[in-house]
Amino acid sequence: MQVHVADHPLINHKLTYLRDRRTDSPTFRRLAEELVTLLAYEATREVRTEPIDLETPVGPTTGIKLANPKPVIVPILRAGLGMLEGMVRLLPSAEVGFLGMVRDEETLEVSAYANRLPDSLHGRQVYVIDPMLATGHTLIMAFEFLRDLGADDITAVCLIAAPEGIETVREAVKDIGIPVTLVVGAIDDHLNEQGYIVPGLGDAGDRLYGVV
Q: What is the DSSP code (8-state) at residue 21?
């Protein structure tokens, strides 16, 4: 698994305000959207393209366009929805699927409760978006789910990650059998006993949409 930390002053600036407990939900949503667009530039460096011939106002040339089949963006519900607009802005022609996954706060086990994906992802590049990589179990389950549908290349985009989670995912990816890339804005210190990233930014879903 390749891990890329997108260390950039603008990313760090936006992360600072995301972490601040005083940041309200509307501002948090806007910052998350802006941040994922910055991360998406790094995440899409290896997006598949194909040549295309065209005419400029002064003559012929050759450019590139996204190759078929188009990539698929998969936000992990519900917090991943807060990153979707920023990702779609960079890949407007990509298709969008959804995976609903929930973590038991006592056992930290992850289970899927919703799936809105094509029946086959054969030959597709898939971009999974989820604000936080904490224990890593959610991403592992998502990777296995997508691989079983035929995905052959997966990139995960997370705002922040815990080192324990990264290592857990790294070990699991060895058995998944397809290329996986992880792009994050920052790697934090550790996980606490409740499985939350420290210093982190709290519960991303609650901060995006409020407590329900």
A: T
